[in-house]
Amino acid sequence: MRLQNKTAIITGASSGIGEATAVALAREGARLVLAARRVDRLEQLKNRLEQETGARVLALPCDVTKREDVERVAREARNAFGTIDILVNNAGVMLLSYLKNDKVDEWERMVDVNIKGVLYAIHAVLPGMLAQKSGHIVNISSVAGHEVFPAGSVYSATKYAVRALTMTMEKELSRTGVRITNISPGAVDTELATHITDEAVLETHRRRPPDFRKLAAQDIANAIVYALTQPDYVNVNEIIVRPQQPVQM
């Protein structure tokens, strides 16, 4: 119960990495504020966590592209639990496409969710963390924030932005008591890829070797728990987690 009496907001908590992180933090004793658009999924997760772990859980509808939604989540978290100690900035979309296919609406969606959504959440929690001189913000970037690949131009641009933002925050906030961590997952078995509409990208994914194994969402949740449970004087700045593929025989 290393996070007992800590309040954690998790964006994008209705599935994938967000859901797995909620389970992991509940098992560590954290009070949880689950934020996402799919309220039915949040309520199911809330009920499950309360029954299995006894955690105190608040499930709140939130579209991270709407600043007022994110501000409301932070406000209700403070009203319910008094403080916000952890933010897991997880909400994101991965709409891979080739630039020549001109999917401008999808580009805008990635910028709105992956960059502006992250900024809105930081805006909503950082003043309180600075006032209490403690807190931990975990931003979820990607391996795509370290290297680029065809069809990932805009997605990589957004994830490079998250990583650059996190690096700058670490420098700005290093003497404030607020810790910052960037988590960069490789391929994870979540629903992110199911939202891709570019048929050429989908065909590439279908041609992956049958023994290609993605990471589990729990693998990323484990990395987040590791960063959050270090002693107060330790700031884990960055963790990259990649799948290890089978040895060629």
Please provide a written account of the structure.
With 249 residues, this protein is of the alpha/beta class. The protein has a single domain (7-241), classed as NAD(P)-binding Rossmann-like Domain (Rossmann fold). It has seven helices and seven strands; from the N terminus they run E-H-E-H-E-H-E-H-E-H-E-H-H-E. It has helices at 16-27, 39-53, 67-81, 104-132, 153-172, 199-206, 217-228, and strands at residues 7-11, 31-36, 57-61, 86-89, 135-140, 178-185, 238-241. It has a seven-stranded parallel β-sheet, sandwiched between helices. Helix 3 runs parallel beside helix 4. The chain is globular.
Summary of the model, kept short:
Helices cover 45% and strands 15% of the residues. The protein is an alpha/beta fold and 249 residues long.
| Low confidence ranges | none
**CATH fold descriptor:** Rossmann fold
Helix/strand order: EHEHEHEHEHEHHE
Give me the CATH architecture, please: 3-Layer(aba) Sandwich
Given the C-alpha coordinates, what overall shape results? globular
CATH homologous superfamily? NAD(P)-binding Rossmann-like Domain
Number of domains: 1
**Structural class by SSE content:** alpha/beta
Beta strand count: 7
Mean pLDDT: 96
Helix content: 40-55%
Largest sheet: 7 strands, parallel
Q: Indicate the proportion of strand residues.
A: 15-25%
The rounded Rg comes to: 18 Å
Number of helices: 7
Q: Kindly, what is the distance between the CA atoms of the first and last residues, rounded to a whole number of angstroms?
A: 43 Å
- In what order do the strands lie side by side in the largest sheet? 3-2-1-4-5-6-7
